Amino acid sequence: MAVTGNGGGEARGRGPLAGLRVVELAGIGPGPFAAMLLADLGADVVRVDRPGGGGLAVDPAYDLTNRGKRSVLVDLKSVDGPARVLDLVERADVLVEGFRPGVAERLGVGPADCHARNPRLVYGRMTGWGQQGPLAQTAGHDIAYIAVTGALGMIGNPGEPPAVPANLVGDYAGGSLYLVIGVLAALQHARTTGTGQVVDAAIVDGTAHLTAMIHGMMAAGGWQDRRGANLLDGGCPFYGTYETSDGGYMAVGALEQQFYDTFVELLGIADRAPARKDLARWGELREVVAARFRTRTREEWTAVFEGTDACVAPVLSLREAPHHPHLAARGTFTDFGGITQPAPAPRFSATPAAVTGGPARPGAHTESVAADWDVPALLPKDA
């Protein structure tokens, strides 16, 4: 969907969203990541930072969630702060904010204020608990949101505490990606009808949505509501991770029979592996597989399985991942501004995206935004 931004100024980005104008009210976590994704795909994202910061304790030069954006400084608590944001909103297609419910309204930049200036605006709201509900005004973080949805309880070994999957499942999968999906869908509606709307993206909603297949399997009797007892949660001996002789790990996902046959043959246990369909002997099968993996290093096992249909891969660290031959060949990671980082995804045949700029320093683009978006009031009064 090609989207043309409002007002003057040339599109900064390349990609399918070139020409789209986004105002991001500075926050942390899933909101900035969602806006980064829009910038990756070509949108002109202007981040409204507050004087004095207020984000994570990370040097802005390394905050990759602000790559490809521009930044202006606006104090929303000042007399003319809300007016400056509304000037930007009037020329924007999308606004993204991650305040607690009601805060944007109290600051004078809530949906009603913005739609009064720009009825076509898509107003994206990113929260953990959502705009309504008993916990809507309560503080929280990724781990709490995925906890109550059942997602956290699925992850880890039986008899052990649930394993914490960084903040990938909640903040970014259940939060950012659902916000972007909602924004793009609302943009299509606005383009068709001329009317914008509010997108209420709650991490609890998105994370719960991610478990749809599991709920179906559970209803059908094919999934037990406990950790480490199922096909995809580590309960299955041919879908899990195994330690190698050098302390590394290999990931095994040989679910289908033909892939499993290749797996046990290359692993060297085809003649002594218990029948894979005999659930009563899964523990024995796991021990045989684990013992065999401990006889060689991760590098040696990688060489054995590389290029086969055994569905086995080495477990790499973040620093190792960019050097994996397949990822290197595809350019899954890129170097920009001296920082190795994930390249934009997904890929487009006609409108390829690219990293177009490093992390936006707070307030560094006031002049260019004032000119491109025709908002001279952003400039200091003595300029």
Explain what this protein looks like in three dimensions.
It is a single chain. The protein has 383 residues and is of the alpha/beta class. 33% of the residues lie in helices and 14% in strands. The protein is built from 13 helices and eleven strands. Strand 10 (333-336) and strand 11 (339-342) form a beta hairpin. Helix 5 (142-148) packs across helix 6 (168-193), helix 5 (142-148) packs across helix 7 and helix 6 (168-193) packs across helix 7 (203-210).
Which helices and strands, and how do they pair?
Blueprint: E1 21-25, H1 30-40, E2 44-49, E3 70-73, H2 81-89, E4 94-97, H3 103-107, H4 111-117, E5 122-127, H5 142-148, H6 168-193, E6 197-202, H7 203-210, H8 212-219, E7 239-243, E8 249-253, H9 257-267, H10 282-293, H11 298-305, E9 312-314, H12 325-330, E10 333-336, E11 339-342, H13 366-372
Parallel strand pairs: 1-2, 1-4, 2-3, 4-5, 5-6
Antiparallel strand pairs: 7-8, 8-9, 10-11
Helix pairs in contact: 1-6, 5-6, 5-7, 6-7
Summarize the structure.
This protein is α/β, with parallel strands linked by helices. Helix content is 33%, strand content 14%. The protein is built from 13 helices and eleven strands.
Major sheet description: 6 strands, parallel
Helix/sheet category: alpha/beta
Distance between the termini: 39 Å
Biggest sheet: strands side by side, in what order? 3-2-1-4-5-6
Beta strand %: 5-15%
Which residues form runs of ≥5 with pLDDT under 50? 1-11
Order of helices and strands: EHEEHEHHEHHEHHEEHHHEHEEH
Shape: elongated
Q: Please, what is the average pLDDT?
A: 94
In DSSP terms, counting alpha (H) and pi (I) runs of 4 or more, how many helices? Answer: 13
Helix share, percent: 25-40%
Taking all Cα atoms into account, the compactness measure Rg is: 24 Å
Say how many strands there are.
11
